[in-house]
Structure formats: structure tokens, C-alpha cells
Fold this protein.
Amino acid sequence: MADDDIPFDKTLDLAPDTVDEPVPGVRRVMANNPGPFTFKGTLSYIVGRGKVAIVDPGPDDPAHLAALLDAVRGETVTHIFVTHTHRDHSPLVPALKAHTGATVYAEGPHRAARALHIGEHNPLDSSGDRDFMPDVRLADGEVVQGDGWRIEAVATPGHTANHMSYALGDRNILFAGDHVMGWATSIVAPPDGAMSDYMASLDKLAARDEDLYFPGHGPAIPDAKRVVAYYTLHRKAREASILHRLGKGAADIPSIVRAIYIGIDPRLTGAAALSVLAHLDDLVARGVVATEGTPSLAGTYRLADAPLAAG
Ligand SMILES: [Zn+2]
């Protein structure tokens, strides 16, 4: 299945560092950090009125800080929630906390989903905000009560090990971070992310009530459960394409990427290789695919029931 099979919506008429209010009680301000992974920019959300929470302050950018403070002028920021610790989501936290005195809530500090294998270097090292530490660590299902709003922490590991989504009580709204986005599929790249966790988190969201998602990038997602179902189908189809390619013979990751990502943006081939590795990690753990030693970007992969090549 190609990415175009998912009904993506790429319309987002929001200028950087201006505020709008897509639904009553939820305002958003987009940072000016467009790119192949961030779409038009990271979205920070302001929840409530008067005494407010901010979800995902965003990148360490003085203009974005000024825009957020401007948006809440005359109000008090009591809470800061962080979905995950990629550099486009959390590095503005210390400055925003210093200006507002808000308490910072998140699942925990940045960490890999699995230990690095011997000799493996983490290609995502620079994308993690390793300085981040919340004031309050949230567990799955924990509820934080604010002034006129209530937020439930919904653990959604997969994109990162510490990824947390936030449900806005009684509103059927979910702040989905980078777990589900309306403009592209989410990136699941080891060792920060893990495909088995990611798929389990999608199943978890499919079983919940929220049906309007506000993602970390891109427009709001109405009918969100339909998009979650598409995401699941998309991952299963990608797994099937990898198995189909390996059915023709052993292959390394660059050959698999060439076989299954047709017409990919060249800036994304590194991410595609990591996404394939995420699937292979999972397939090797399930005993479906075999490789020499532990799965790595440099490895060669074959179906577990295929005979080893002679010699
Ligand atoms: Zn991210």
C-alpha cells in the first residue's frame, strides 16, 4: 500500500506563530520549523481559558516562545504536558517554565525502546532531547485536573518509548503527538521506537472513544478512528511487502527500501531504512525472518523458513 492510500489531509491554513482556536477551549500555535519530518511546523496546543495547560511547547525558538506567551497574555499557564522528547517538541520547556512557573508533566526522560546492540550507533541521537526531565512523571491512565479541563494520560509508545497522548476529558479529543498524524504516517525508527509497541498503541487507541485528534504536525483529524484503522492496515501492508520481497530471496535493507518505497522523497530514504529495520526487528523477534546476529541496518535478511544459501 502506498502512502497515498491513507486519506491524508495536507491543508493547514495557519501562519507560523499566530494563534487560532479550532474548537472552543483548544487553541494552537505552530512553530516556524517546517521540514520533511515536521510538515509545516510543530503545533503547540493551549487548553482551557484563564488557567491553561500547554501541550508540547515545541522547539527551542525564541519567536515561538514569544508567540505562546503572547497567546496567553493575561492568563496563567498552570500545566505543561509533553507528548515525547524529540527536539521539535520539548526543548522549549525550560524557557516556558521559567516564564510561567507551570508544572511539567510527561511520561519520562528520553530513552531508547531497546538497548543498543554491540557496535550499533544510534542514528537518531541528535533528534532526542536528552536534557528533558518532567516535574511529574505520568503513568498510563493517570488523570490531571485543571481549571475547567481534565486531561488523561494515554501511554502510546512506539514512535518513542516515552510517547504519551493526552485525552481531553468528556470532549472526545486526543492530543496525539507524533503517534498519529493527519498528513503522513508516523515514523517508527529503532532504537528510539519499536514497531511491536507502535502497533499495540494503535490497537489501544482503536478501542477508545476519542474521535477528534489534534496531532503534533498537520491539521486536526476528525473521524480519527478511521485514520487509526488505516494506519494499522498500512503497517500490515508494509510488513507484507517486506515478506514478499524476502520471498524472492535474501536482501539487505537498501534493496528492500528500493523494492517497496516507490517514488520516495530522497530526503526520507534514511527514515525509510529505519522504518524497514523497525519491521525487521519485530519480524526477527517473532521468528518469521532470520538474520546473522542481531538485526541492524547493515544486515542481510531472509525468511526464517528459507534455506541458507550454499557456501
Ligand atoms: Zn517525534
